[in-house]
Design brief:
40% of the residues are buried. Helix 13 runs antiparallel to helix 14 and helix 16 packs across helix 19. Helices cover 79% and strands 0% of the residues. The chain starts with 11 loop residues before the first helix and ends in an 11-residue tail after the last helix. The protein is mostly helical. It folds into three domains: 162 residues; 72 residues, no CATH class; 78 residues, Arc Repressor Mutant, subunit A (Orthogonal Bundle), CATH 1.10.10. It has 21 helices and no strands.
Length: 441
């Protein structure tokens, strides 16, 4: 899962917060009706309203002396800030969590949650600025969170629904993504810890166990690849794809990103080992999977708009504002039409960019110019040929977009990823070039 390890719904940062927040999901769902309304706002996607509601709920818990749930509420606040890549907002939450942790060191979830959010913040700061101090702080907070987690009793693990697999796995990913060369010993150490934790199960559902096994297997394949054990890497990634197939039987859309990333790994593996026919085969499979994902995401976007509409309609009924309901209906219809148009446009754009990027990989400079008209084909060719390691078609496409001068948000939109994933790709591309090579970003 190399392209999405950094953030996002299954990305590294969101993964950290999702794991941490998950420790309070059960408690949150068992709260009173006021809290239930807040969690519904979180699901509706109205971030501004949700933020205000969760902060109010945190104050209510504090007045009641319910510090565990107060900490959980702050997690959701941190997650909302994270979705907006608002580091200032996250830094505003941390002092409140720090005070909770200092005042209540006897509550393991409160202290654990504090260090997990700090780990997430420093990961964002490192991706933004590349400061080694932020990277070191990220790992330090991760170690502290793991130490607290390992001291939890089985009863506490179950109560807070902490899944130790992701604590270890995220550390392995960090040692892969945030160094010029992957720190193989550390990756192997934390992968083994994650594997041991996943084998223990902790009474989690089968799908949770399988998701952990998929992620661990993915990272293990990359570790074999780094070590030049290409046969083992190929075998491990095929095992991952087999598990993805089994998950898709029950939940077809749950692992669509993992499938794309597995195909991307095989493209890089086969390209690097000279098996170009296999590389092209998996490029085609990856392209088809990406198009399916776009269709699913389009439908999800429509469902999200419909959910927002339903929330607004219920609020209108309560407030007896029938005229607002009529207005909302019109707005929602326009939004649905806009979302449909936008996703169709993005799909067509992705197809054109994908074709141009693949042709740039194997054909002439004219094909490079077709992707980005304002980019010098000669300059692009020099950058591609200067890489120390083979560039994948996706990496070449990112380089063309960086050369075209597009903003991070535009690139993220074109690639259908979060802005933080663009920063991750920059670091991954840098690892394939000499330290003093003038990359276009």
């Amino acid at each position: 899962m190399k392209l999405c390890k950094s953030f996002i719904i299954k990305g590294f940062l969101l993964f950290i917060l999702a794991v941490a927040a998950a420790c309070g999901v059960k408690s949150a769902q068992e709260m009173n009706s006021d809290a239930d309304a807040v969690w519904e706002l979180l699901r509706s996607g109205d971030d501004s309203v949700a933020m205000e509601a969760v902060l109010k709920l945190a104050d209510d818990y504090h007045r009641r002396g319910d510090y565990d749930n107060e900490s959980i509420a702050f997690f959701y606040v941190a997650q909302l800030y994270l979705q907006q890549l608002d580091t200032s907002g996250m830094q505003g939450v941390i002092p409140k969590m720090e005070k909770l942790a200092k005042d209540h060191p006897d509550l393991p979830n409160v202290v654990y949650s504090y260090h997990t959010v700090r780990q997430t913040l420093y990961a964002i700061l490192y991706q933004e600025a590349g400061r080694e101090q932020d990277r070191d702080e990220m790992f330090s907070e991760g170690v502290k969170a793991i130490a607290l987690m390992e001291k939890m009793s089985p009863e506490e693990i179950a109560k807070y629904r902490v899944n130790p697999v992701w604590n270890y796995y995220n550390m392995a990913v960090g040692y892969d993504m945030y160094f010029d060369e992957p720190v193989r010993d550390s990756i192997a150490f934390y992968l083994e810890k994650a594997r041991e934790a996943n084998n223990r199960g902790f009474n989690f559902a089968e799908n949770i166990h399988l998701e952990g096994e998929i992620s661990i297997g993915d990272e293990q394949a990359w570790l074999y690849y780094y070590d030049g054990e290409y046969d083992k890497a190929e075998k491990e990634m095929f095992r991952v794809l087999s598990m993805i197939d089994s998950v898709e039987i029950k939940t077809p859309n749950a692992v669509r990103t993992e499938r794309i990333e597995a195909y991307d790994f095989l493209v890089e593996l086969y390209s690097n080992t000279g098996r170009l026919d296999k590389a092209l085969e998996y490029q085609k499979l990856k392209s088809e999977a990406e198009l399916r994902r776009i269709g699913v995401e389009r439908n999800e976007a429509i469902h999200k708009v419909e959910a927002q509409y339903n929330v607004a309609r219920e609020q209108a009924k309560v407030e007896k504002m029938r005229w607002m309901l009529v207005l909302s209906c019109g707005i929602i219809l326009l939004l649905v039409a806009a979302v449909l148009y936008l996703h169709l446009w993005r799909r067509n754009r992705l197809e054109m960019q994908y074709s141009a990027a693949v042709e740039a990989l194997v054909e002439t400079d004219d094909k490079v110019t077709a992707l980005a008209g304002n980019v010098s084909a000669e300059t692009a060719g020099k950058i591609f040929s200067s890489a120390l390691k083979p560039l994948s078609a996706v990496e070449r496409k990112y380089i063309l977009l960086f050369m075209s001068g597009k903003a991070t948000e535009e690139i993220a939109s074109a690639m259908h990823v979060a802005p933080s994933s663009v920063y991750t790709m920059k670091y991954r591309i840098k690892k394939k070039y000499p330290a003093d090579f003038p990359l276009p970003f």
